[in-house]
Write a structure and sequence with these properties.
Layout: H1 2-25, E1 34-42, E2 48-56, H2 62-74, H3 76-86, E3 94-99, H4 102-122
Helix pairs in contact: 1-3
Length: 123
Amino acid sequence: MIKKYNRIQQISQEIRKKIAVILQQKIKDPRINMVTVLDVTLSRDLTYAKIFVTFLRKSRDPDANEIAIKALQGMAGFIRSLLSKNMYLRIVPKLAFIYDHSLNESIRISKLVDQVVKKEHLF
């Protein structure tokens, strides 16, 4: 069982790397600015992959992230076909892109901690 889990983990890391390169080099959509692939979760039978992404942009418009995720979902078939050309898998998983809020939340929490530290030094 450990061997199977290890294989799934290795394949998901390889898919993460390949999709990151594909999104950087092959996708030229203005709705998708700077995208970072944070993680890939595969189903046990390798038929489905959840791709967790975040976007690095200056605007804080929450609709922009939603629009970008919809654009990625629309291109999922094209990205999957490019992935199949770059990887030697019998079954290339169907891709589902999910926006990951963890990076934004960590930045927000870090700013809050900095504010508290500044207030502590004032007293």
